[in-house]
Write a structure and sequence with these properties.
Blueprint lengths: L10 H31 L4 H17 L1 H9 L3 H24 L5 H29 L5 H29 L2 H20 L17 H14 L1 H31 L4 H29 L1 H14 L3 H4 L4 H33 L2 H17 L1 H15 L1 H15 L1 H4 L28 H12 L1 H5 L11
Helix pairs in contact: 1-5, 1-6, 1-7, 1-9, 2-5, 2-9, 2-14, 2-15, 3-5, 4-5, 4-7, 6-7, 6-10, 8-14, 9-14, 9-15, 9-16, 10-11, 10-13, 11-13, 11-16, 14-18, 15-16
Length: about 450
Amino acid sequence: MTERRSLWGHRDFTVFWAGDTVAQFGSQITLLAIPLTAAVTLQVDARAMGVLNALSYLPFLVLTLFAGVWADRSRRRPVMLVSTVCRAIVLAGVPLLYAADLLTIGWLSFAALLAGVFTVLFEVSYQAYLPSLVDREDLLEGNSKLQVSASVAQVAGPALAGWLAGWLSPQDAVLISAIAFAVSATGLGLVRRREEPPERARDRRPVRREIAEGLRFTFGNRVLRACVLEAATYNMFWLVLETVFLLYATRERGMSAGTVGLVLGGGAVGSLVGSLLAKRISERLGVGPTVSLAMVVGCAAPVLVPLAGGPRPLLLALLVLSFFVGGVGTMVANIQVVSLRQTITPNALLGRMNASYRFVSWGVVPVGALLGGWLGGGIGLRPTLFVAAAGLFASALWIVFSPIRAMRELPPAADGPADGVADGVEDGTADEADRAGKADRVDRLGEQDEQNAETVG
């Protein structure tokens, strides 16, 4: 028997990982550079900012469920490659339009919408591609390396975006992100390993039926229902806060783009710290108390944003503290929730549960963006931040008043439909779970890279 080598010696994984790392930074730069372009370069109002953010996330509501089915029925790498190239082209158009004096909030919103479409197509394929690239025994190492890249990008990305926007301009920062996606596409193109086409299921059922089963299972389970409603409430009010915060920070508090990036970077640092503390806290307090306490702390922290004031150093310190504490709390809770979701869901339903979960929890994001813009333009930026803080704190109540609070440890893993939680799922799901269980076990490893992709849950 030959000794298994580390993935450091795996040529195809190495180039894929390098390209993905660059793309992670590109994504983080884009998240801040596009709204900064609207706020600083185009000087838009709160309502226009709300529409921009809503269009950025609209594809997650419209396409996620169907994109997941498409990704399972086709080769994933071509989808990822085309999506990455298209994101680079779309984003490169923003500084070009500005140079030609043609950039408007309409064109910027259209670019954000297209970038969101290609992001959805990439993400659903990306999460399922790794098993085609490395051997099954290397999946844990591969996911770990990819997660490290994502965590580093989340810590450094906002600060880098703010620095680029301040040193150059917000639209030039968008160009940098386009270049990053072009580099990522090059890494994907250099992968040599041939991806086998997916097997065509002999008894493939209609897409609508499979989607409906996932939705019924997710909302028929009291634990999953509490988690997804908390995540949806949190995400909606987080977009209310995010929509007006850039305008509030740059116009009412006189902060530069670089300073805004540093403040938002506090949340990423908090998330990294939370990921390091999550296991230790859970072992001491138990799963349920850890989720409840961390959720309350993380959801209460944003109230410091509208309350922060005083001399400039104190203002900045309070803002950084707010995002940092929020990042720690939500990450500690998020890790427990993801593990809980994985444990109570049968293998054969994990994919559809994840799609249903993301569809609901991210589908409300455009609503939050529009609500933030409407409130910001109607009652003012600072009052809107108080509304957002109240909504974020209220989201924790879904968990506090759920069965999760009483759990001391994770329940036994579900091999078939979880007892008492699959109400409404059609007969035959148990047999399906048994047939698909072995093939779908890799989904538990693949879902690890989602922990930082979702806000909570």
